[in-house]
Amino acid sequence: MIDVHTLAEENKTQSVTKLAKKYGVNHQKIQRLLKNAGYLVRLTNDKRTKKQGTLPDGLVLIAEYQNLSLSQLAKKYGVTASAVRYKLVRTGQYKPRGYGERTNV
């Protein structure tokens, strides 16, 4: 089994493609492992420097989402807003703001 935290550290300096070759797996498996763990993924041609962060457990994230927006949580943990949204959706309790029950007035 590949350790996700080790992968994330190596992904700071190596592309997903190189990591896939190193571990003898498909690059999509590496991407999926990192994304499911809440890490940003560095692709082959990605020359930008990104913050590499980790997200807390989904329940902790839901509790914080009550007071902070997706972008604020992303900034706090050093990940993208998409990664935060993805993690919240995976918990099964994510409901976008503004999508409440309709009321007939």
What does this structure look like?
The structure is a single chain. The protein folds into 2 domains: 1-51, no CATH class; 58-91. By secondary structure, the chain is mainly alpha-helical. It contains 6 helices and no strands.
Largest sheet: none
**Rg (CA only):** 16 Å
Report the β-strand fraction as a percent range: under 5%
- Mean pLDDT across all amino acids: 79
User: How many beta strands in the DSSP annotation?
Assistant: 0
Give the overall form. elongated
Binned, the helix content reads: 40-55%
Kindly give the count of domains: 2
- Overall structural class, as computed from helix and strand content, comes to mainly alpha
Element order, helices and strands?
A: HHHHHH
Q: Helical element count?
A: 6
Give the N-terminus to C-terminus distance in angstroms: 56 Å
Low-pLDDT parts are: none
List keywords for this structure.
mainly alpha, 2 domains, 6 helices, single chain, elongated, 105 residues
Offer a quick outline of the entry.
This protein is 50% helix and 0% strand.
Give the SSE layout:
Elements: H1 4-11, H2 16-23, H3 27-36, H4 58-65, H5 70-77, H6 81-91
Helix pairs in contact: 2-3, 4-6, 5-6
